């Protein structure tokens, strides 16, 4: 009877006929040795193990130089789970004939089995060290056992292929597996192992070509083909492949999750809807629901614009597993979507505080709760709430976890600029640019900080140089134009953008910025023409709809048209505080105060540090005779970010409101 160890090793390889019995080599007493050799075979076939072993031993004694006899005995020992006897007897054969195919095959299988035992006792992390000694020995002996490949045992070749994969010798595994798969059509594991080899070798394109050729005849390969498409970021192809696979297995929820994930990555509203529907089915199919499916469902809802459903799904993820950061991450994204900054802080800051010490410890491992996913969201929320020191602290913690991440460095610089800590922002930008000298975003932030600190010329010089080194990036021209405009060098800003338009005629961001620059110069016709150009190419550009709508409202012109633009912007982004302010201001200019106060209150509650929004809210409150509330709003405007605020005008309005209040 085969041992469990040997049986497990052989069960995963193709079934092949046993090798033909071969007579021993010439011996001192060849006739008697051959007679005992044949007797041993006959007894083994009759399951008389003890008799067969005794006959083999007599044959070995009669012909001690015949390597085939101990090789055959070693194979019998192997089948009988007498591993040490198989090993020592095969070594006897090798000592006589080093290239003996059968003896090397036995030794190869023995060492492979020993390696399996070692792996079960102490699993080795992939790539953590060189292959263990037993794997190396197994490969050595099996390579001899299958050389030449003609007539070699397919089981030995399959075992060797698996060992190549374990040793990450993928280029050796690929041709061996390709031949085996072609020859052994009944070997179910073979195609998957070959795909694994292609993936391990980084030959994804070759793997896709092979899978495409064979998946039609072997539909079991479809999920693997989908996975390979995903590795190449061919999301639509992956989604189509998973869809075909699901036709064969419509109740396979794991496959549905992969299908939905590919659809989410492919993007487009139709794909997002399909992903949502598939994930809804998966979530409904299990109690408790699949956590990954819930997380992806939250993402699908969010990207379809349904923030309440996204939040609900995220909270279900947390309820199911509050030890993972991913539910909280999905919640943060859902709350960000509706600009619920205080809720972000209320719900996530305690979670971060709970895990902060452990996560920031030098010996934190990969299983530690990853607060790095949450810190940027909390930092942005604090920043929007005007709690700049807490925002900076959050981004500093994030930078501790990812010290070389330019995005995190950028967030920290922006927070310091918002806090008016321009010197710190400049120093941070310089330090980050040492590690990322070609990062345009960091250069842009450094230039902004320089301008805010009164060194506009230095900032402009940085961005003028950046335009030369980033000549193929539209954002370089936009950044320079913004700084020109902020430094009251509007003509230069227009020229930079017009030159960029000639170079990038279809880039909407350039046209948008040109509209903004013209607006600041009070060239309203030119500004409106630029924004209409954006909308002609992208009718659902919410930012452009808001800008043109607010521009009309601010001038008190074509207010019905202004309202229509702003309503459309809010259909696209319903909870955007800036858009709510614009619509409220348009209603205010139209003397529709009830509508105005509703929208302006929502905007003011959301963006408490935005001075202009607080000032607008104060205006409508004053007109409604709510003087104490108007004074409070205007005071918030004075303590806010101060951007585009006429402080003396606000002071006058506060005094007027106080006079009105005193007369009541």
Q: Top keywords for this entry?
A:
elongated; 36 helices; 664 residues; single chain; Serine Threonine Protein Phosphatase 5, Tetratricopeptide repeat; mainly alpha
Description:
This protein is mainly α and 664 residues long. The protein has a domain at 1-168: Tetratricopeptide repeat domain (Serine Threonine Protein Phosphatase 5, Tetratricopeptide repeat, Alpha Horseshoe). The protein has 36 helices and no strands. Helix 25 runs antiparallel to helix 26, helix 31 (559-572) packs antiparallel against helix 32 (577-589) and helix 33 (593-606) runs antiparallel to helix 34 (611-623). The longest helix is centred in the first third of the chain and has 21 residues, at 101-121. The model is unreliable at 1-27 and 125-130 (pLDDT under 50).
Task: Show the helix and strand layout.
Layout lengths: L3 H8 L18 H16 L3 H14 L5 H12 L3 H14 L4 H21 L11 H13 L8 H13 L3 H14 L5 H12 L3 H12 L6 H10 L3 H14 L4 H14 L2 H17 L5 H13 L3 H14 L5 H12 L3 H20 L14 H10 L3 H14 L4 H13 L3 H14 L4 H13 L3 H14 L4 H13 L3 H14 L4 H13 L3 H14 L4 H14 L3 H14 L4 H13 L3 H14 L4 H13 L3 H13 L7 H17 L1
Helix pairs in contact: 2-3, 3-4, 4-5, 4-6, 5-6, 6-7, 6-8, 7-8, 8-9, 8-10, 9-10, 10-11, 11-12, 12-13, 13-14, 14-15, 14-16, 15-16, 16-17, 16-18, 17-18, 18-19, 19-20, 20-21, 20-22, 21-22, 22-23, 22-24, 23-24, 24-25, 24-26, 25-26, 26-27, 26-28, 27-28, 28-29, 29-30, 30-31, 30-32, 31-32, ...
């Amino acid at each position: 009877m085969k041992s469990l160890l040997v049986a497990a090793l052989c069960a995963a390889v193709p079934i092949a006929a046993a090798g033909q019995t071969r007579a021993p080599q010439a011996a001192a007493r060849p006739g008697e040795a051959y007679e005992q050799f044949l007797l041993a075979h006959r007894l083994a076939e009759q399951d008389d193990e003890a008799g067969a072993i005794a006959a083999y031993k007599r044959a070995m004694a009669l012909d001690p130089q015949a390597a085939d006899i101990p090789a055959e005995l070693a194979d019998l020992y192997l089948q009988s789970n007498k591993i040490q006897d198989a090993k020592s007897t095969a070594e006897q054969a090798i000592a006589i004939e080093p290239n003996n195919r059968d003896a090397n095959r036995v030794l190869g299988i023995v060492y492979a089995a020993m390696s399996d035992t070692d792996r079960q006792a102490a699993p080795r992390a992939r790539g953590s060290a060189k292959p263990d000694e037993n794997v190396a020995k197994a490969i050595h002996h099996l390579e001899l056992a299958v050389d030449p490949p003609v007539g070699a045992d397919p089981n030995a070749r399959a075992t060797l292929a698996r060992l190549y994969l374990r040793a990450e010798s993928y280029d050796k595994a690929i041709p061996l597996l390709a031949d085996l798969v072609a020859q052994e059509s009944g070997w179910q594991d073979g195609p998957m192992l070959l795909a694994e080899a292609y993936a391990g070798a980084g030959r994804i394109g070759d793997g896709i070509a092979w899978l495409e050729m064979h998946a039609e005849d072997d539909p079991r390969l479809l999920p693997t083909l989908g996975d390979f498409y995903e590795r190449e970021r061919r999301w639509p192809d992956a989604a189509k492949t998973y869809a075909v696979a699901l036709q064969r297995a419509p109740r396979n929820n794991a496959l549905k999750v992969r299908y939905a994930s590919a659809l989410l990555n492919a993007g487009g509203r139709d794909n997002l809807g399909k992903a949502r529907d598939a994930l809804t089915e998966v979530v409904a199919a299990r109690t408790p629901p699949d956590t990954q499916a819930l997380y992806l469902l939250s993402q699908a809802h969010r990207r379809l614009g349904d923030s309440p459903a996204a939040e609900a799904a995220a909270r279900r993820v947390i309820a199911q597993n509050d030890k993972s950061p991913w539910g909280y991450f999905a919640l943060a994204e859902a709350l960000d979507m509706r600009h619920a900054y205080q809720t972000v802080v209320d719900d996530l800051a305690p979670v971060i505080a709970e895990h902060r010490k452990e996560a920031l410890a030098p010996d934190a491992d990969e299983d530690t709760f990853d607060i790095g996913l949450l810190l940027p969201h909390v930092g942005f929320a604090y920043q929007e709430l005007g709690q700049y020191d807490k925002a900076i602290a959050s981004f500093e913690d994030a930078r501790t976890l990812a010290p070389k991440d330019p995005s995190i460095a950028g967030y920290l610089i922006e927070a310091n600029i918002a806090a008016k800590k321009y010197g710190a922002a400049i120093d941070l930008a310089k330090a980050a640019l040492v590690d990322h000298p070609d990062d345009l975003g960091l250069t842009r932030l450094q230039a902004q900080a320089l301008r805010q600190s009164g060194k506009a010329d230095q900032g402009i010089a940085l961005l003028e140089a950046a335009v030369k080194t980033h000549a193929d990036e539209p954002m370089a021209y936009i950044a320079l134009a913004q700084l020109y405009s902020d430094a009251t060098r509007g003509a230069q800003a227009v020229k930079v953008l017009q030159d960029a338009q000639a170079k990038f005629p279809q880039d909407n961001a350039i046209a948008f910025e040109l509209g903004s620059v013209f607006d600041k110069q009070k060239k309203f016709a030119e500004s409106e023409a630029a924004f209409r150009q954006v909308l002609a190419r992208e009718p659902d550009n919410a930012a452009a709809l808001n800008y043109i709508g607010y521009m009309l409202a601010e001038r008190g012109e074509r207010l019905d048209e202004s309202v229509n633009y702003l309503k459309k912007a809010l259909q696209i982004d319903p909870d955007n505080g800036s858009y709510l302010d614009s619509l409220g201001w348009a209603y205010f200019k139209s003397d529709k105060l009830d509508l105005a106060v509703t929208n302006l209150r929502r905007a003011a509650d959301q963006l408490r540090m935005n001075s202009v929004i607080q000032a607008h809210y104060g205006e409508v409150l004053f007109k409604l005779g709510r003087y104490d509330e108007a004074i409070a709003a205007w005071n918030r405007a004075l303590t806010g970010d101060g951007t585009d605020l006429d402080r003396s005008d606000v002071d006058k309005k506060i005094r007027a409101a106080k006079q009105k209040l005193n007369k009541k």
